[in-house]
Amino acid sequence: MCDRPIQIAVIGDKAVGKTSIVRQWLYNDYSSLYSTTRLATYHFTSLFNGQRLFHIRIIDTPRFDDTNNTDPQQEWVRMYCFRRAHLFLLVFDINREETFSYIKNIYREIIRIRYNNNNNFYSQQQQQQQHQQQQQTEQLTDIIINGDDEQLTNHLPVIVVANKVDFISTDLRFANITITNSRDIQQYVKKNFKANTILCSAKYHWHLVLLFKEVCRMLETVEDTVAKQAAQQARRRLQQHGKHCHVM
């Protein structure tokens, strides 16, 4: 069990049911009155899958609007989630195709920010290493670069959540908008996100247990990654402190 909490970011467009999913699962509470999420909400809880106990922090986020980047708090939350979250729940309304387009854009943005951040970090490390002895440089490179290669080859830990399936109508006028497209969406997610899509209804608590079973399944891999990253950071700090330590 890792001491650091695993951070799960719940991200999606307005009115897709992000808060309803979190509150229904954590507190068995649902409200039919809609209230726009304007500030991020943090929920601390634990999950036990029968073998391992996971300490998690769920970040229920507002809609990240590109036209409103002047809000410093929203921008801080956005960048924190994109860079630091260990698992993403990308939520959309299965009856509104534009909400799926939104999470596609969010996914691309997360990839761009994470990989650019990694590239900038490691380029700075390489510049610092040029001023060190060759032996120290090789040791640090083994620690840093190996970790980076593994991060770049791994897929982003994502679960796509199709909420509000209770609104799917049997009326033929709406069948081509919901049921047919939902199959196409699942295939798209499988191919491009390398992730699973969970259809659920926060209102009726339908498939929320299935959703968080999938969360538990992914947490095993995520926690191992978190522990490995923490160990790598500790080794880097030891290497950095070792440069300034002298035996008196």
TrEMBL record:
PROSITE patterns: RAB (PS51419)
Gene3D superfamilies given in the database record: P-loop containing nucleotide triphosphate hydrolases
GO molecular function: GTP binding; GTPase activity
Pfam families cross-referenced by the UniProt entry: Ras
Signal peptide: none
Lineage: superkingdom: Eukaryota
Protein's UniProt name: Uncharacterized protein
